[in-house]
Predict the structure of Ribosomal RNA small subunit methyltransferase G.
Amino acid sequence: MSAASWASLQEAAGPVSRETFDRLVEFETVFQKWNRRINLAAQSTQDDVWHRHILDSAQLARIKPEAKRWVDLGSGGGFPGLVLAFLLAERDGASIDLVESNRKKASFLQAVVGQFNLPARVVARRIDDAYPFVSTPQIVTARALASLPVLLELSAPWLTAGARGLFHKGRDYRTEVAESAQRWSFDLVEHASATDAHGVILELSDLRQLT
């Protein structure tokens, strides 16, 4: 297991209680057990789950500390959705919907939500079938799911209604932004990743389709 520390979590996510840190450490153990059975994340990252996945996910909480209604698309192994659920438990009235169509992965998400009594709801459907079942979000997240043009297409029903997108992207993100701008207008803020020297978190808002 990778070396977890309360300080590293607070550096990535902002103020976090010791109790939440302890719960995330326990979650890492649960994740490792499930990952050996149903391949929730690449085996190459198995020895560094804390940094590569948990801290990488947690940094979104620092970007939007006031947001209470979230939805995570293609939640898979729970990154960033489950990690955010642990952090949102410290925000009164906050919650996150986890959209995941894969039956085994949705079962994992539901098991963790139940075990830790997280403020999260698993929506076991394809994203394009999930819109009526998701509470109106303030923030839409997705990590390692699809290219930015595809993400904007999938999240447009929420982003065109006032939600903001927080999307993890790698070194080639500028190409994806340029391609997206051929179909959409949007406001964009680039946040340097706290865990990846070549990565960014793209914050998109005021999405409008070009005529």
The CA atoms of residues 138 and 173 lie 23 Å apart. The mean pLDDT is 94. The first helix runs from residue 6 to 13.
